[in-house]
């Protein structure tokens, strides 16, 4: 045999680049070839999207699509490790694409710098064969799920909040449920917390995002052991994880059931009672006479000492607060009797006004509604925009978070 003849299952370039994963049992050459022919869509270029995109790009996925309409901000950098300080203000999708291409120029990266909604999701998704949900809100989760089912695309879904993370694969196999099978009705928007409000530690999203990338690689390589029909729960505080088996596909499911009623994307804002984005909602629950802006409160507190009720959790209260603030959380406003709240605030029937503040002006309004029902002789007034407005408009040294 001529010394220049040989049988090769993969190119010299790819063999050299991906040699360590080519040596893995049940992955090998076929797995690498399948990965290279895969087209993976990542929805969300944040804390989960960064590790998903980074690992899949490095592993040699043929095409990576990235959907995100947001810009990089300073408070992203502790967990969205693909970005640098110099990129603050730039497009997340474009920034992540540049990071992937700088690491692996062979990857075809498609940027969708757009807000995903019912009008554009099908046109975007139809070009991919695996989807990763790396978003942070319920409305978009339903949208992504429904479109994946409609187009028959497996969905790798991750979430992370505070110390905890979750991961599952939906609509992958005949018995595998979709997200809507498990949650046919959307939760009350007021009960849902995202990382903007609840916080999250960077290694938690890094862990879940890395595992999402691993599930994509297994699906692409046709490795039978995946998290389809299972839910992985990760407890970062205790360093524990467990996997629970989910119930099978619901034959009565509105989107993946035997007789589906949802065959095209619906209005997810109406269905969920909240917009399909992860930005902070600005509520308007009170009449104007029950609210003051931060400039008005600044002038009021100059003239005489005021009682200021701060509804934030203690961990936020410790970050910064005005010196007159008394910490009574929203949950305490809801659960404590009127006498105990009055005692905590040091108020009696002679008091006329108590001002209520929170992070951004949402929970303070909820607290006013609760407190006026419990303590009818006191006038509770909300401070519009909360401490965020105070930092932006009154005191630029006050910590923003």
TrEMBL record:
The reply on keyword Transferase is yes
InterPro entries to which the protein is assigned, alphabetical: MOCS3/Uba4 (IPR028885), Rhodanese-like_dom (IPR001763), Rhodanese-like_dom_sf (IPR036873), ThiF/MoeB/HesA (IPR045886), ThiF_NAD_FAD-bd (IPR000594), Ubiquitin-activating_enz (IPR035985)
What CDD domains does the annotation carry?
ThiF_MoeB_HesA_family (cd00757)
Record-linked Pfam families = Rhodanese, ThiF
Enzyme nomenclature, EC number? 2.7.7.-, 2.8.1.-
Kindly list the GO CC terms recorded for this protein. Answer: cytosol
Mind listing the GO molecular function terms for this protein? adenylyltransferase activity; ATP binding; metal ion binding; thiosulfate-cyanide sulfurtransferase activity; URM1 activating enzyme activity
Which residues does UniProt mark as catalytic?
Answer: 195 (glycyl thioester intermediate), 358 (cysteine persulfide intermediate)
Q: How is the cofactor bound?
A: Binds 1 zinc ion per subunit.
Q: What is its main location?
A: cytoplasm
Report the SMART domains cross-referenced here.
RHOD (SM00450)
Q: Which UniProt keywords apply?
A: ATP-binding, Cytoplasm, Metal-binding, Molybdenum cofactor biosynthesis, Multifunctional enzyme, Nucleotide-binding, Transferase, tRNA processing, Zinc
Top EC class of this enzyme: transferase
Domain Rhodanese: from-to ranges:
302-399
User: Main role?
Assistant: Plays a central role in 2-thiolation of mcm(5)S(2)U at tRNA wobble positions of cytosolic tRNA(Lys), tRNA(Glu) and tRNA(Gln). Acts by mediating the C-terminal thiocarboxylation of the sulfur carrier URM1. Its N-terminus first activates URM1 as acyl-adenylate (-COAMP), then the persulfide sulfur on the catalytic cysteine is transferred to URM1 to form thiocarboxylation (-COSH) of its C-terminus. The reaction probably involves hydrogen sulfide that is generated from the persulfide intermediate and that acts as nucleophile towards URM1. Subsequently, a transient disulfide bond is formed.
**Cofactors required:** Zn(2+)
Similarity comment text for this entry: In the N-terminal section; belongs to the HesA/MoeB/ThiF family. UBA4 subfamily.
Protein's pathway: tRNA modification; 5-methoxycarbonylmethyl-2-thiouridine-tRNA biosynthesis
Q: Locate the residues binding Zn(2+).
A: 178, 181, 253, 256
What is the name listed in the Swiss-Prot or TrEMBL entry for this protein? Answer: Adenylyltransferase and sulfurtransferase MOCS3 homolog
Q: Where does ATP bind?
A: 47, 68, 75-79, 92, 136-137
Question: Which compartment or compartments is the protein found in?
Answer: Cytoplasm, Cytosol
Q: Which GO terms describe its biological process?
A: Mo-molybdopterin cofactor biosynthetic process; protein urmylation; tRNA wobble position uridine thiolation
Q: Superkingdom of this entry's organism?
A: Eukaryota
Lineage at the top is:
Eukaryota, Metazoa, Ecdysozoa, Nematoda, Chromadorea
